[in-house]
Specification:
Elements lengths: L1 H19 L5 H16 L6 E5 L7 E4 L17 H13 L3 E5 L10 H7 L1 H12 L3 E4 L6 H4 L3 H9 L5 E2 L1 E8 L2 E8 L12 H18 L10 H16 L6 E3 L5 E3 L2 E2 H14 L3 H14 L17 E4 L9 E7 L2 E10 L2 E11 H8 L2
Parallel strand pairs: 1-6, 2-3, 3-4, 4-5, 7-8, 8-11
Antiparallel strand pairs: 2-12, 6-7, 9-10, 9-11, 12-13, 13-14
Helix pairs in contact: 2-9, 3-5, 10-11
Length: 366
């Protein structure tokens, strides 16, 4: 029966996907981000939460795009789970506040019950943060379910043993030289016609569209998988964050790690240029190998990448095909792009890039 329905429904389903999730429009994206940011600052707790950031002592870890599935062949999180669990243990023990920045659960390809039953170890790890009020959950387009299902709060309580609110965005509020300043966090699907529309369209996507896609095993292209759309969306996010009076922005969604407005691939190329100028042969070889591998995941370098200002950050994802995970840390007065990977059977944390929060906040006032 499924094969028969795939035959007759695949084309119309893909047509609808293209119709309702056309290439992102800059004005639509910017308007959606500004509207959400203003709502959070005005105290609309249905939209988001304001969290204090004392740069001298507060610690935040931001992961997104786990896409936890049903542990079947299409579950992208399955190979990354060991690194994710090691990271959760480390950040819990080190006193970090964990922000899950959307698409934590893959609820376009799966119904909620198998996702919950197959991911109890990660739920237990996250539950420890919940118990100490060190957990903030933001929804994305692939777990839009949390924003509009009438029973979402019951499922969340079942997962975490207590009520957990899910937001569309969050603001880290701090000060620089006596002036209040913010860092804005959201998943990054804002302006997507398929998943960032009115409440009715959002309900249709999560309650009808997603189960239909899951049953038919159809995965139409989204910004997380289509290179040109990923790149375009990241550029729109960067352009919004560099506008006057807008804060530094941290998102997920595209699965491309971005630090201070440059993708990790762009930073690898910058490092390669330096290594070649220094004739550092071992470093040149290491960087070329890393570039070759990462190009498989996100093969794009902006023409003006050397001139971009450090306004925009992207966590990357927790479902790379090699099991690596990336995220953004804020701690010890620094903001960092980190990676967890496995070496000889042991998960290890690696700092890929870092800069001082003072430098970041100073840039936001220029």
């Amino acid at each position: 029966m499924r094969r028969f329905l795939q035959t007759i429904l695949t084309k119309p389903v893909l047509w609808l996907a293209n119709k309702f999730s056309s290439s992102p429009d800059m004005k639509r994206v910017h308007d959606a981000l500004s509207k959400l940011y203003d709502a959070v600052l005005k105290g609309d707790t249905r939209k988001g939460i304001v969290l204090p950031l004392d740069v001298t002592k507060d610690r935040y870890i931001i992961f997104s795009d786990q896409h936890k599935g049903a542990k079947d062949g299409s579950d992208d999180f399955r190979t990354a789970e060991p690194n994710y669990l090691a990271a959760m243990e480390y950040y819990y023990n080190e006193g970090f506040h964990f922000i899950s920045l959307g698409d934590c659960e893959e609820l376009w390809e799966n119904l909620i019950w198998p996702v919950m039953s197959k991911n109890k170890p990660t739920a237990e790890a996250e539950k420890k943060f919940v118990a100490q009020n060190r957990f903030t959950k933001v929804f994305g387009n692939h777990d839009l379910f949390w924003a509009n299902d009438p029973f979402a709060s019951l499922y969340l309580k079942n997962m975490y043993d207590e009520a957990v609110k899910v937001y569309e965005g969050a603001v880290l509020q701090t000060s620089y030289e006596g002036k209040e300043t913010n860092i804005f966090l959201t998943h990054g699907h804002q302006g997507d016609g398929q998943s960032d529309g009115n409440p009715l369209s959002a309900w249709i996507v999560s309650r009808i569209w997603a189960p239909l896609q899951s049953y038919l095993r159809i995965n139409p292209n989204t910004p997380a998988y289509k290179t040109e759309m990923k790149t375009l969306h990241n550029r729109f996010m960067y352009e919004w964050s560099k506008e006057q009076n807008n804060p530094p922005l941290i998102t997920g969604h595209t699965h491309q790690p971005v630090f201070a407005s440059l993708t990790h691939l762009e930073r690898l190329y910058k490092s390669l240029i330096t290594a070649e100028m220094q004739n550092n042969i071992p470093e040149i070889n290491r960087l070329k190998n890393e570039i070759g591998f990462r190009q498989k995941e996100y093969d794009y370098v902006a023409a003006n990448y050397r001139e971009m200002k450090p306004y925009y950050f992207n966590t990357g994802c927790c479902c790379f095909s090699d099991g690596d995970i990336t995220g953004i840390e804020i701690a010890e007065g620094m903001i960092r792009l980190i990676k967890w990977n496995e070496e000889n059977g042991v998960s290890k944390r690696m700092v890929l890039e870092e800069m001082s929060l003072k430098d970041l906040l100073m840039e936001s006032f220029e």
